[in-house]
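Bit of a strange request maybe. I'm writing a small parser for structure token strings and I need a real example to test against, not something I typed by hand. Could someone generate the tokens for this chain?
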Amino acid sequence: MDLGITQSDGHVGDKAWNVVGHIYTPKLHSPNAFIWHAQIPDGTFVPPHIHPTQDEWIYMLTGNLEVEFGHDEGKVTTHPAGAGDLVRMPMGRSHGIFNRSGAEATCVFGVAPARKLFDLFGQLDGVTDPDELVRLSALHEVDFLPPPPDAG
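Reply from user aminoacidic:
Good idea to test on real output. This should exercise your parser:
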């Protein structure tokens, strides 16, 4: 990690990615951690998935999200998260992130260690095909779960 300050309008390598409709702006990237700012429009989501090699967290800045846990265990619980809340998603535990609030949410995500997530976001920038998103993610240590049988 480089010593210094990433300004509020700055980002790593002048990068910003559109990943599943969210705008992700990297703020810090090192082997030990990856932190990014996210703009999450209403009606968008990250489907249930597992990071088998990383802990992940979300610090909420504005708006509201719903985080679902337990898809892989067959017992889904939904938890609201609003400004000032910290969402903790341990490695190996399934989670999905949904904005059903009627307004944009902004937050800061982080993972530790960084592993392959920074590179994955570069590859997912603008990808809209769900099968390709799942394929690329699996190559970068993010495992999306299949939809439930009643998802139609």
